[in-house]
Amino acid sequence: MPQLNPGPWFFIMITSWLTLSLIIQPKLVSFISANPPSNLKSETQKTIPWNWPWT
């Protein structure tokens, strides 16, 4: 069965993953800036307990 022979596609898979992880990914990550932390206070909302009809 030819699909069990890793010869033709294994090298292509390894080179594509290495290309993606070593060359393309650092270039893409450099364009994405993280959101700066906000100085706004987080307001905690008062929760109301749910009254279940069967309890």
TrEMBL record:
<dbReference type="InterPro" id="IPR050635">
    <property type="entry name" value="ATPase_protein_8"/>
</dbReference>
<keyword id="KW-0406">Ion transport</keyword>
<dbReference type="InterPro" id="IPR001421">
    <property type="entry name" value="ATP8_metazoa"/>
</dbReference>
<keyword id="KW-0138">CF(0)</keyword>
<protein>
    <recommendedName>
        <fullName>ATP synthase complex subunit 8</fullName>
    </recommendedName>
</protein>
<dbReference type="GO" id="GO:0045259">
    <property type="term" value="C:proton-transporting ATP synthase complex"/>
</dbReference>
<feature type="transmembrane region" description="Helical">
    <location>
        <begin position="6"/>
        <end position="24"/>
    </location>
</feature>
<keyword id="KW-0375">Hydrogen ion transport</keyword>
<dbReference type="Pfam" id="PF00895">
    <property type="entry name" value="ATP-synt_8"/>
</dbReference>
<keyword id="KW-0813">Transport</keyword>
<comment type="similarity">
    <text>Belongs to the ATPase protein 8 family.</text>
</comment>
<dbReference type="GO" id="GO:0031966">
    <property type="term" value="C:mitochondrial membrane"/>
</dbReference>
<keyword id="KW-0496">Mitochondrion</keyword>
<dbReference type="GO" id="GO:0015078">
    <property type="term" value="F:proton transmembrane transporter activity"/>
</dbReference>
<keyword id="KW-0812">Transmembrane</keyword>
<keyword id="KW-0066">ATP synthesis</keyword>
<keyword id="KW-1133">Transmembrane helix</keyword>
<keyword id="KW-0472">Membrane</keyword>
<dbReference type="GO" id="GO:0015986">
    <property type="term" value="P:proton motive force-driven ATP synthesis"/>
</dbReference>
